[in-house]
Amino acid sequence: MKRIRTATLLAAVLALIGTVFVGPSATASAAGPCDSAANWAAGTWYPAGTVVRYSDGRYYVAEHDNPGYDPVISTWYWDPYTCQGGGTPQPGGFPVSEDQFRQMFPSRNSFYSYSGLVAALGAYPGFANTGSAETRRQEAAAFLANVGHETGGLVYIVEQNTANYPHYCDRNQPYGCPAGQSAYYGRGPMQLSWNFNYKAAGDALGIDLLHNPSLVQTDAAVSWKTALWYWNTQRGPGSMTPHEAMVNGRGFGETIRSINGAVECNGGNPGQVQNRVANYQRFTQLLGVAPGGSLYC
Questions:
Q1: Which of 52, 195, 212, 252 is deepest in the core (most CB within 10 A)?
Q2: CATH H superfamily, domain 34-89
């Protein structure tokens, strides 16, 4: 009997140790939106970024606020959402967690939410999801380093120099500036500007941004999508898109050239270039990946 009581006591102690040091901490570290996701219900109001479980057991994230539209039918309002690793959400394999995102941008404006970024990823599924795990992390870091630079650390939603606002209307375009002469100023993570860029981005994304440019500063998912549109499809003053630069091994410096190379590269503004590079080096270190070569332009 003494041996049995000792063994029982030992088992209880071990169970307690396991509860204290394994159970709760493991559960807490694994918890994420998918763990607390409610079953989707028609007629329920879902803010952008909400994760729900559909009747087939799959998860969806609200890309835009909606009054309970069906995720399978209303694909403009919902995107499929993948949960990996004990419920930790990794939409589309995006290699940056929400905690890492917060560390990258400790002073960010709440408008630039992680859920808004997550909701936008479906528009360009190849983004940070092409090539090796190293390449994917490098591209995510490069994108966030550049948008961080453009917005002062994801602080500014709109261009701060209001004197520039009337300049972004090219009336030589056949569609003109239907939202007004001063409506196409810089907005969002990549500071989208000019009427022709609003039209091109809107056409690509299936959103009428030419007539509703303010969506880029009021809808977080739309705002992030415009930045991803530029990153994945526009060469700017460079010879390739920033996405191509990262997945083809051309280096971070080539992304700078594609975004603002006419002003910053080739000695144009070394201070601005250095700030972008410093962001990138810090973010790659946080993601546990080497920054690679060709950092400057």
A1: 252
A2: Carbohydrate-binding module superfamily 5/12 (2.10.10.20)
Quick count: other Cβ atoms within 10 Å of Cβ 18?
Answer: 11
Q: Each residue of 254-269: pLDDT tens digit?
A: 999 999 999 999 999 9
DSSP 25-88: HHHHHH--TTTSPEEP-TT--B-TT-EEE-TTS-EEEESS-BSS--TTT-TTTEEEE-EETTTE
Spatial distance between the Cα atoms of 63 and 61, rounded to a whole number of angstroms:
6
CATH number assigned to the domain with residue range 91-160+220-297, chosen from the 4 options 1.10.530.10, 3.40.1350.10, 3.20.20.10, 3.90.1150.10: 1.10.530.10
Question: Number of helices (H) and strands (E), helices first, in the chain?
Answer: 11, 6
150 is catalytic: yes
Per-residue pLDDT reduced to its tens digit, 176-209: 999 999 999 999 999 999 999 999 999 999 999 9
Quote the tokens at residue 116: 């808004």
